[in-house]
Design goal:
31 strands, disordered N terminus, seven-stranded antiparallel sheet, 714 residues, Beta-galactosidase, Chain A, domain 5, Glycosyltransferase, alpha+beta, five-stranded antiparallel sheet
């Protein structure tokens, strides 16, 4: 639909009162309460039908205008997933339909549904929501949708949300979607309406329930409900209802019986729906309260939006199982996991992805982060190696060892230290310390020539691409690489501080001595004179001088936990200068992963499509952007991160399906859906403030968000 047509169609929709491009402060009502008052007549904002521009909206529940991308529903690629931590989800698409869902334990793949959930009947006229003209604003876990009906004298506003609440894992584990409808009668006579509601029919052992005012008939087995109301002349009628589900038991792909954590709080779908409906206002206020703290911050508008939307990954990719049996090795708080991507690459807790993406869990729900790290500790083998994952596609008892093993064990040790910085819990540190120590010592075995560095261990045939055994898993490197060896420098620095915190002077000295030796070897073998080369294999005498965009991964690892750094400052500054000149200069959408010394995108020639070298790895680009920020190069760092987010949210119109790889030339999706590692965006404000995990969570945005959501609980 053209923008002018949409403006005409929705020109009178401002009387609905939920969203406005500019409304006076006195028009705001109590957060969570829908106003029947009119608002200023400039809805929809100018960005409708053209998501290439940002707008600011005054929206119900916020006390100041907020940044937003408002989409013509027909142009939106994918909708907001409505769900929380380990609950499953359903997407509300731009055309108004329920799209994909996983509410009945259909995790991989999620069920492709795409049916109307709302059909309005008046007399002989029946109009599904998908046939209306829709304006769509999502701010996970909330959707605000405005619809203009042509066949009926009706305008409608829908607000749907799930209670994803930072700092409150239990509330966020509620299997419910809450709906608030405002129906405006634009005719000169009363408008009796019948609303047919249809949601996915439950499968065996599962149930779904709808609770709310005006429901006169229901068929729970088919997911069909009838709601009756009448809208007086010139008035607006508001209806609230809740959709709850209950799918307590499932078998993972390894054949193991699992019990969803939420089933210990809710005995039925009706109980979940009733809980949500009775607390609708409070739950909504709590959600909008933490969002409001982001929106009121001094961050750039695009970054505010990126932080809000990025948390959607917890709805799409998380599982939280309960402790139900005496022989369950995990604790009473259950076991929480996040998939690499249930929709794109289903692997349970890929260590190298969680290295980037675990931060929101660490920040907002550290008690759940502890359950995941405890599972890695549980699956550690006798030589100290930490597994790559817990299983695939949904298995949680098939850990994979000796896959990307030059990284996994050291990254685990770094995460143990990050958790300690977040909680300050010395008892917890003692629980993980010996495990982290053994994980670090395991990596000594991968120093092939005793130079002090972990070596790459590609398990590829000559000319092959996979498994390269590091994060760029179809791009084999040889000898020592700036990425793997750099991560090792970060691991040794973390090992020093873990030992210091544990009072282990012997291991502290061991890590300090090894770090110094490793730093010398790193600079000797990889420094070209202006940047760090991709890899150097002294055994064969071969090397590769490609500039990796994230060649300073070790520096990022150090800075996020508050270390001064692991490489000479003058060399960091020089390398960043070359990355800005060449990797940034080679694309308009972030950083090309690999460029030659003359600035040309590097074709790896080992993969049919030249995956990693020629293209843009979002999670890795974000780490590189943050390294610029930690170096004080604010403008460059923010520009890289902005390019990445706007390529996904604006150009691809897909803020709720963020890809792993973007095409280096077009910025469009190249590979991977709903990627775990993209949650690294949540570290950008920390890097912008040049803070560590301890500093960032001890005061400022994270604390403000948790406190704001908590205050609204009463």
């Amino acid at each position: 639909m053209k923008r002018r047509e949409l403006l005409t169609a929705l020109g009178g929709a401002t009387a609905l009162g939920l969203i406005s491009g500019a409304a006076s402060a006195q028009n705001l009502t109590e957060p969570g309460e829908l106003s029947s008052e009119g608002v200023a007549a400039d809805w929809p904002p100018a960005s409708v039908g053209n998501a290439s521009q940002w707008t600011r909206l005054r929206a119900e529940g916020f006390h100041a205008p907020v940044p937003a991308l408002v989409f013509d529903g027909g142009e939106l690629a994918e909708g907001v997933p409505l769900g929380g931590l380990g609950t499953g989800y359903m997407t509300l698409e731009g055309d108004g339909k329920i799209g994909f869902h996983s509410i009945f334990n259909n995790l991989v793949p999620p069920k492709k549904y795409f049916q109307d959930w709302l059909t309005v009947n008046s007399g002989t006229v029946s109009v599904p929501l998908s046939s209306t003209r829709i304006s769509y604003w999502g701010h996970y876990p909330v959707v605000d949708l405005q619809a203009a009906y042509q066949e009926l004298p009706l305008k409608a506003l829908v607000r749907a949300f799930s209670p994803y609440i930072v700092g409150d894992a239990a509330a966020s584990n509620t299997p419910v979607v809450l709906f608030d409808l405002k129906l405006q009668n634009t005719s000169s006579r009363n408008l009796p309406l019948k609303l047919n509601l249809k949601f996915p029919a439950p499968t065996e052992g599962c149930s779904l329930a709808v609770c709310g005012q005006g429901i006169v008939a229901r068929n729970q087995q088919e997911g069909i409900y009838l709601l009756e109301t009448s809208v007086p002349v010139g008035k607006t009628q508001r209806l609230r209802f809740a959709v709850g589900w209950h799918s307590p038991y499932w078998h993972d792909s390894g054949g193991e019986l699992r019990v969803n954590r939420y089933s210990q709080r809710f005995e039925s779908a009706e109980a979940a729906a009733d809980f949500g409906l009775r607390r609708h206002g409070v739950l909504l206020r709590r959600v909008l309260a933490w969002q409001g703290e982001i929106y009121r911050s001094s961050l750039p508008d695009w970054l505010k939006d990126a932080l809000v939307q990025g948390l959607y990954s917890h709805a799409k990719n998380s599982v939280w199982i309960a402790h139900t049996r005496d022989d369950d090795w995990w604790g009473e708080n259950g076991w929480f996991t996040h998939s690499e991507s249930h929709t794109g690459c289903p692997i349970v807790e890929t260590m190298v992805c969680r290295m980037h993406g675990h931060f929101p869990l660490l920040f907002f729900h550290p008690e759940l982060e502890a359950t995941t790290l405890n599972a890695f500790r549980h699956f550690q083998i006798s030589d100290g190696e930490i597994p790559f994952c817990f299983g695939m596609p949904t298995s949680m008892r098939d850990p994979r060892h000796h896959c990307q093993h030059p990284l996994n064990s050291g990254q685990y040790a770094q995460m143990v230290y990050r958790l300690y910085l977040r909680t300050g819990d010395r008892k917890q540190l003692a629980h993980y310390y010996e495990s982290a120590k053994r994980a670090i010592r395991y990596l000594y075995l991968l120093d092939d020539d005793h130079c002090g560095l972990v070596h790459d261990q590609p398990h590829v045939l000559p000319g092959g691409a996979w498994p390269a055994n590091q994060f760029y898993d179809c791009w084999p490197w040889h000898g020592v690489s700036s990425y793997v060896a750099g991560t090792w420098l970060g691991t040794l620095a973390a090992g020093k501080e873990l030992a210091r915190a544990a009072g282990d002077q012997e291991f502290l000295a061991e890590c300090a001595g090894r770090l110094k030796k490793a730093q010398n070897a790193f600079n000797e073998r990889l420094w070209t004179g202006s940047y760090y080369r991709l890899w150097n294999d002294v055994k064969t005498g071969k090397m590769n001088d490609v500039l990796l965009a994230n060649q300073l991964m070790g520096e990022w690892c150090a800075k996020v936990v508050g270390f001064e750094g692991v490489l000479p400052q003058e060399r960091i500054h020089s390398a960043l200068g070359e990355i800005a000149r060449l990797n940034l200069g080679a694309t308009s959408y972030g950083l090309i992963n690999g460029v030659t010394p003359d600035g040309k995108p590097y074709d790896t020639k080992v993969h049919p499509e030249g995956d990693f070298g020629l293209n843009i790895f979002v999670g890795e680009n974000l780490c590189a952007a943050m390294t610029f920020l930690y170096d004080g190069q604010r403008d460059t760092g923010l520009e890289i991160a902005r390019r990445l987010y706007e390529a996904m949210a604006v150009k691809a119109r897909s803020p709720w399906n963020q890809r792993c790889l973007l095409n280096g030339q077009t910025g469009l999706p190249f590979w991977g859906d709903d990627y775990y590692s993209n949650l690294a965006m949540w570290v950008v404000p920390m890097a912008l403030a040049r803070q560590s995990v301890a500093e960032f969570t001890g005061s400022g945005l994270v604390k403000d968000m948790i406190d704001a959501a908590s205050r609204e609980k009463a």
